[in-house]
Specification:
Elements: E1 2-6, H1 19-31, E2 36-39, E3 42-43, H2 51-68, E4 73-75, E5 79-81, H3 90-95, E6 103-107, H4 117-126, E7 130-134, H5 140-144, H6 146-154, E8 158-162, H7 172-183, E9 189-191, H8 205-211, H9 217-230, H10 251-257
Parallel strand pairs: 1-2, 2-4, 3-5, 5-6, 6-7, 7-8, 8-9
Length: about 260
């Protein structure tokens, strides 16, 4: 599997504070069957990671993984806040792209007051960049107006949901919206958005199996991210999953459940 959204670099943003924390995350990824990770530090006003810091951090981590014998390939990337986009020229953005390819991981706004970002995203496309939207399931603007996300996808943008969202790690509202997006065919990639090995730990397959999406794991976590890193067209995927069936119980328990 390939994880396109992971805060793996040490001492850069709100991910691991040191290299030991990074190695612990890398070992957890490898143990779960992840073979490649895009290191995506925040690029925002409060965590203004530069392309130089990101590149040197990736080199440091690669050296450490080789020395420790951890079978995990780490590629470059960044999670770019929309508020930072106007401050970055095209060369800056290309240096922060996923694996050096055409795709940018752009953070969906998490504040309810965010507005007017649709035109900014379209302008990025006009400049020649491809856009992968990070955790749109947690964006209040998309929750209130799902048609805005649909329009962006119809314009050629893709979505990257967080695996933990499907199993309730960000609350029931986000969980329900995640399933809705999956059932409407608006999920193209699922990533970990891991920050550490505790509260925001690596995880992909187990969460998707728990959520009932084992048939979509290969497309979301292997085929699509491989195509994005290679700058290739996204391969056709399976049909959208059906809504999960509510379990029915017989006897007294069933009678109480239907009251």
């Amino acid at each position: 599997m390939i994880d396109l959204h992971c805060h793996l670099l040490p001492g850069v943003d709100d991910g691991p504070v040191d290299l030991e924390g990074t190695l612990a995350m890398a070992r957890a990824h490898a143990a779960m069957g992840v073979r490649r990770v895009a290191a995506t530090p925040h690029v925002s006003w409060d965590m203004p990671t530069t392309a130089t810091a990101m590149t040197s951090g990736v080199a440091l981590v690669r050296e450490a993984l080789a020395r420790e014998g951890v079978a995990l390939d780490v590629v470059t990337g960044a999670e770019i806040a929309m508020t930072m986009v106007p401050e970055l020229d095209d060369d800056d953005l290309r240096a922060l792209s996923l694996g050096g390819g055409p795709w940018l991981l752009v953070e969906s706004p998490l504040t309810p007051s965010a507005s007017g970002f649709d035109s900014l995203l379209h302008h990025l496309q006009v400049r020649g960049h491809r856009i992968l939207l990070a955790h749109p399931e947690r964006c209040p603007a998309f929750q209130r107006h799902p048609e805005r996300l649909t329009a962006l996808v119809e314009a050629g943008m893709l979505t990257s949901l967080t695996a933990g969202a499907f199993v309730g790690r960000f609350g029931s509202t986000v969980q329900r919206f995640s399933h809705r997006l999956a059932q409407e065919g608006l999920v193209h990639n699922v990533a970990s958005d891991a920050h550490n090995t505790n509260r925001r730990a690596p995880g992909l397959r187990a969460e998707l199996m728990q959520a009932g999406y084992s048939t979509h794991t290969e497309w979301w976590c292997e085929a699509v991210p491989a195509a994005l890193l290679a700058g290739e067209s996204v391969p056709p995927g399976p049909p959208p999953p059906r809504p999960p069936q509510r379990r029915r119980f017989g006897g007294l328990r069933g009678a109480w459940s239907r009251r």
